Amino acid sequence: MPVDLDTYLARIGFGGPLRADLATLGALSSAHARAIPFENLDVLLGRGIRLEVSSLERKLVHDRRGGYCFEQNGLLLEVLRQIGFAATPLSARVRLQRARDFIPPRTHLFLRVDLDGASWLADVGIGSFSLTAPIRLLTDLEQPTPHETRRLVREGPLWFHQVRLAGVWQDVYDFTLEEMPPIDRELANWYTSTHPDSKFRQNLSVARADTDGRRRSLLNREFTRRDATGRGETTMLSSPAELRQCLAENFGLNFPADTEFQCAGLVW
User: Fold this and answer.
1) Is there a catalytic annotation at residue 69?
2) How far apart are CA 56 and CA 3, in angstroms?
3) Which of 108, 147, 171, 246 is catalytic?
4) 6, 63, 116, 123: the active-site residue
5) Which neighbouring-strand residues pair with 47?
6) What's the confidence (pLDDT) of residue 231?
7) Cα separation of 83 and 28, whole Å?
8) 246 catalytic, yes or no?
9) Closest CA to 146 of 170, 162, 130, 166
10) H helix or E strand, kind and range, residue 194
11) Over 152-186, what HEC string results?
12) How far apart are CA 106 and CA 93, in angstroms?
């Protein structure tokens, strides 16, 4: 089933023209990352994560929830294709704060968009580093965005998407340009949402892009606001009630008063 574009555009606050061009791709990426929070809360509540387009639209658009990469970029993929973009889903291994000799699972989905002979990467589903502008599929080129500066480097068959924080380049994920068809997304989503070793089973994670290059994020009890350089201020939440209040006020995520999120990283 196609996405109701009018309702989706209202959800992200987009009022510009819809054309399959770079300006529209950038505007959609920015609006989506600011309006729809990254979050794994249904995983912690024991709810299944469904990837059918109708389920993605219901949750992220009509129910005004967020989601993680398979949901966020899965929805954006369908939106872009309906507009007329040549968009391809690609797979990656998330490397945030991981050493190069560690091989993480291939559990990230992002998008390649081909425009006028050039290839761009779009990714509204990598948490507190979700792209608010597409970046070129070119190596060793510093690429500013409305938030952090990015670049792609290549080592043998691997491409590394990197972000510059406090003057230091850090790996976000690595990839090989391998396409990620629906069956691979289903398998990776099953691992991400159900395997006890998955970081999304072990930690509460919520993030949203802000204006002026700022971001806000929540990792278990730690609520952080940071600027485009990586400098941030962190507040430690003290109770489940304060957590629910933080979710509502900072991410637009509202839950009943008796909702409790449980995972190994969230200890009161």
Assistant:
1) yes
2) 9
3) 108
4) 123
5) none
6) 87
7) 11
8) no
9) 130
10) helix 182-194
11) EEEECCEEEEEEEECCEEEEEEEECCCECCHHHHH
12) 4
* Dist. CA 35–CA 246, nearest whole Å: 16
User: Which listed residue (21, 32, 63, 69) is catalytic?
Assistant: 69
Q: Is 263 annotated as catalytic?
A: no
Closest CA to 87 of 127, 55, 122, 60: 122
The secondary structure element, H or E, covering residue 188 is helix 182-194
Residues 6+ apart with CB under 8 A from 111: 73, 76, 77, 80, 87, 88, 89, 90, 121, 122, 123
Enter the tokens of residue 59.
């949750």
**Measured CA distances, 247 to 71, 144, 217 (Å):** 19, 29, 10
Q: Which residue has the tokens 């054309």?
A: 19
Query: Which tens digits make up the pLDDT trace of 30-87?
Result: 999 999 999 999 999 999 999 999 999 999 999 999 999 999 999 999 999 999 999 9
Q: Which residue has the tokens 């919520």?
A: 206
Instruction: Give the CA diameter of the chain.
Output: 53
CB 67 within 8 A of CB 38: yes
- Whether the full predicted model's pTM is greater than 0.85, yes or no, is yes
Report residue 41 as tokens: 């809360």
Give 76's Cβ-side CA count (13 Å radius): 38
DSSP 55-81: HHIIIIIIS---B-HHHHHHHHHHHHH
Question: Would the pLDDT of 1 be above 80?
Answer: no
Residue 229, pLDDT > 90, answer: no
